[in-house]
């Protein structure tokens, strides 16, 4: 494959995917509405087609104009959009849908492709825009991919867990990096051993390319760091990058009440472990970035940005009240 169309391509996963494809000598075109800054505006290696991916006519025009070998659908949030895209790009060598680990409908450790059932999706959920139905809609998008493959389309799905790294607009990791950077004492919810599987964004980008090149039609592939770390270990990784000593202060439900905080208010906290098996993707030759290296790049990007994650978690004043209670014990 020589040419690729990235639907999206300017914000987070799509932006890293474009860079990954360029590094592997693809001719790249991005399709988006142009409502966000285009980081490739001055890069003559990247062409751009303006269009709304929810408009089938825009996709048809891109298919005719670009005639890509591979299509990467980074911003398909409703199953009807996946069904349309798999039809419009049916003759391409590969169509890769960016799904999500949230598509899984049962708590298992780990969640495995083809074994752990997916979320159901009603007609009402399929057209909803709320986060409550995000997993349902992604699951139905997966089923659209499987149905297309049965009709001969080389369609595949990639399911990332929580993605982090440079240009992460969610700022979930930024909140923790900011805490470690600014304070000697960092409040960690619970005992710090909870696990919410994470995926470094450059590894998600390489997974998308590898699945397009080597994946099997009708298959889904999980992607996440090959080495799992707890929330507490993640905070320690950040501290190691700053070469600083911090005190991790654990706080349970009762202690957090002093600050009006709940466990789920902390970014990247999850009560039940969320773990995806990545063996199927690794069998294609994919590898993940060492955690220390991934964190170093994430911290460097954080320091170069104006992101602090302040809207993602508890404010420091509330945490200070919790620390005050703990200090009296």
From TrEMBL:
Signal peptide: none annotated. InterPro entries: Epimerase_deHydtase, NAD(P)-bd_dom_sf. It comes from the Archaea. Pfam families: Epimerase (PF01370). Residues 4-224 form the NAD-dependent epimerase/dehydratase domain. Belongs to the NAD(P)-dependent epimerase/dehydratase family. PANTHER family: DTDP-D-GLUCOSE 4,6-DEHYDRATASE-RELATED. This is NAD-dependent epimerase/dehydratase family protein.
